[in-house]
Amino acid sequence: LPVSRLVSLVGSKTQIPTQRYGRRPYGVGLLIAGYDDMGPHIFQTCPSANYFDCRAMSIGARSQSART
């Protein structure tokens, strides 16, 4: 299973609560790392179910200082 497909499935799963009235979205962001035929990947998923392919990423309370 390619990493990008896994992240797409996670994004689809977390998007369902954002589309229905009265359901709360998951309030968590994830960093998913993996390796496939294209090389290493790091993906960030947001609580809004968006996901991004990154070269380097940090999330959390001090993430801005880690990025600089």
Automatic annotation (TrEMBL):
Gene Ontology BP terms: proteolysis involved in protein catabolic process
UniProt GO cellular component terms: proteasome core complex
InterPro entries registered for this protein in UniProt: Ntn_hydrolases_N, Proteasome_alpha, Proteasome_sua/b
Alphabetically ordered keywords of this record: Proteasome
SUPFAM superfamilies xrefs: N-terminal nucleophile aminohydrolases (Ntn hydrolases)
Keyword Ribosomal protein: no
Protein name according to UniProt: Proteasome subunit alpha type 1
Organism: Sus scrofa (Pig)
